[in-house]
Amino acid sequence: MDEQAKKTALRMIPYGLYILSAGTLETEIAAATVNWVTQTSFAPPLLALGIKTDSHVYAAARDSGDLVLNILGKGQGGLAFSFFKPATYADGKLSGEAITWAANGAPILASAPAAIELKVRKIVELGDHHTFIAEVTSVHLNQQIEGRPDEAVLHMKDLGEKVFYGG
């Protein structure tokens, strides 16, 4: 397979940007920017998330089974970049960001336009990112979404011409 052609073709798949958080005050809290996310079922509502196996958020998600997918909005590129490195919880904030707590105990970023609470149902352990299949258990709209909801999302392409993930 032509390596460059493979990268080009796979990078043509559009990706939104999200911050996945897991853990509780009683356990280790972790969060990371993720982009391999898609809805896979209406009933029950299921999402598939690709999570890098050597990340802190992978371990916290696997151990707790309770997650929050914080959906980033247009103009939140700086927030996406800040969670490219391991998150820290201090003084009631996650990497300096104000949070609230989901019913499942995981942190919700107050500045994210929307957040989805998830319960892990299955983990497919293939590749360097494992696929978590998680059921939507609750949602939070932290602000009014105007127009098409899918146009309010921060996309990988919004981070600049040289920022790619995948391929």
TrEMBL record:
Domain Flavin reductase like: 10-162
Recorded GO MF terms: FMN binding; riboflavin reductase (NADPH) activity
Keywords for the protein's UniProt record, in alphabetical order: Oxidoreductase
UniProt keyword Oxidoreductase, yes or no: yes
Annotated coiled-coil segments of the chain: none
SMART domains: Flavin_Reduct
Keyword Ribosomal protein: no
PANTHER family xref list: FLAVIN REDUCTASE, FLAVIN-DEPENDENT MONOOXYGENASE, REDUCTASE SUBUNIT HSAB
Family designation: Belongs to the non-flavoprotein flavin reductase family.
Descriptive protein name: Flavin reductase
